[in-house]
Amino acid sequence: MGLIRMTTSSDQAGVEAAPGDPGIPGSPGEPVSRDAGGESPELPVAMGQSVGRGMGWMAFSTVAIKALAFVAQIVLGWLLSKGDFGLYSTALAVAGIVTAFRDGGVRDLLVQRGAASYERLVGPVYWMAFTINSAAALALCLAAPAIAAFYDMPLTPMLVVIGLSLPLGTPAAILQCKLRMQLRFGVLSRIQIGSALVRNVGTIVLAAPPFSLGPLAFVLPLILIAIYEGVASYLAARERPWKRRAEPRQWGGLFLATRWLIFATLANIMFDFGPFAVLGAMVSEQVVGVYFFAWQITAQIGVLLSSNVQQVLFPALARMEGNRVRMAHGSLRALRALMLVGGYMSLCLAAVMGPLESVLWHGRWAEAVPGVQILGFFFPMRITFGLCAAVMLAEGRFKGLSFLTLYEGIGITIAAAIAGWTDGSATAVAWWTGGAMALGRLIGTMYVMGSMGVGPGRVLRAILPPWVLATGAAALAVGVDDFLNLGVAARSALAGAGLGPAMETIVADGLRVAVIGAVCTAAFAVGARVIIPTRLREAIAVGPKRIGAKVERLLLLKQGD
Prior knowledge:
The protein is an all-alpha fold. It is built from 22 helices and no strands. Helix 13 runs antiparallel to helix 14, helix 13 runs parallel beside helix 18 and helix 18 runs antiparallel to helix 20. The longest helix has about 40 residues. The two termini are about 40 Å apart.
């Protein structure tokens, strides 16, 4: 998406080898041999360190990217209209049908097959991906006028730009596979931060005068991003896959090996963008824009955490192939940490959103506040998708991942259609889609964890305590704000300061944001320290050691807790 990586869906699916296909290393027809990328006696310690460092780097990049995206959305909230946001979200949704074929699904094939097969696959994979991306770009450009006519919206320029970005992104997509295989998450995080900087600064510049390009400002930076990521990834990987032999005879086997990836990506498009495609044909673009604005603010936390966790865990879990006990243990720990961090961040944002909107947009996006609060309550469950995808990818359960994603995507899309038909407001859409997403994710998480021997009770104990704790902390913070009537009290205290009514309101609401955020944070930290100290320690361990040590001392966490 504009402030969220548009390529997320392609990172959330896998590949499957055709049974007995001798052309695909690692398929049942050709046993996989693993070198340094496989299991070894030293792997448990090294793997834990690599995953820990990787999670730390990805956590850092998540914060940095979120900060950039949030600042950009503040500015874009002033520069662009509700209709602009609605047009952009609709364009992304319908373009997803074509972009689902991006790279032909072969990127994760390189990661899943391991270092032993890389040299044999990288050339055919690159040229097959480039060919498919070029064909997808041509198809999207040709279909753009008809799509625009169906929705009766000016979507053609955006769809053409999205299409052109597909082949340009091929080098970065393949090169970053090598970085993932090497567990070089620090390098990947720096590339992602640079990409976010190019995206957000570019969007703002193109949306502002003298350009004032409206919704087109969202998609034009995709061209610059593809070029930047290609150059940065090449400098990091020092690989030239475009100089490898194409070997088109292997493409048929590669396509068969990745057929479920394409299906899974289509399912993921429905999971992420299905509601916007349906709503674009049912309600006004302004309503779609308000819901998209609310979803985008919330998703800056949830989707980034989910995607980063998957990028780290997938290659790490792939190295544990066959050791389901270790996979189950690591996945359960990751689930607990995700719910702790994601629950706090999502619910704290929901708590402060009312006064925060007043400070940032002065009521311009007040219609989106209920949507953010509703989605903030449900969104901690969205974060579990990356974990489930990483587990199923690592085990080669690509068909299962495809159908799991499809079932959840259908549920969310149907929920959006019901909301659009019965009510038609952005708030109703948030209730219906948020509830459907949370229920679908709960069932999906139980299914994936259950396949590794983790029962529903353990899954619920991992999910519910931090979620309930975060909800309680947010409710307490909002209750304190209401009980003390902080807005009125602050404006009364500022009445004689000569700031003027408008500035008084901004400062007063800014104080409300600070108080609500502080109360929510303190209540959550104390509650986690008392009720779930072990999980709190696990989450702190993911971050930088120096900061973690200070946080542990502040919360009086002891080794035996």
